[in-house]
Amino acid sequence: PKGKMAFTGKYEFEGDENYDAFVEKLGLPSDKVEMGRNCKIVTEVVQNGNDFTWTQHFPGGRTTTNTFTVGKEADMETMGGKSFTATVKMEDGKLVADFPNYRHTAEISGGKLVEISTSSGVVYKRTSKKIA
Hints:
Layout: E1 9-17, H1 19-26, H2 30-36, E2 42-48, E3 51-57, E4 63-69, E5 73-77, E6 83-91, E7 94-99, E8 102-109, E9 112-119, E10 122-130
Antiparallel strand pairs: 1-2, 1-10, 2-3, 3-4, 5-6, 6-7, 7-8, 8-9, 9-10
Pfam family, one: Lipocalin_7
Main location: cytoplasm
Family: Belongs to the calycin superfamily. Fatty-acid binding protein (FABP) family.
């Protein structure tokens, strides 16, 4: 439908690949690692042109919200609660954020939200199904 943006929707965690190797590379403390394992994160995305509001709802009521505009620098927060500045780009319909030693992409594929994070050669993939 016209005017409806590709990313807008609510997505629930469905599965991931390579979680342990990835969080190990990031050096997450073990309590955070266990907390994040198969965590039913619900990701809510509101896209208005190049403006995005990206909210992650964690079980237990914690939420992280990042607001950014494609092509402009923005202050954001990671899953682990670290703050950083990044410029999100759009490449072939994927949102791409590049950091030193870290790359994150997000795309809608087959109606699912597919996020891929790469750090020091370790690739972590998370898939979420659309629920709204």
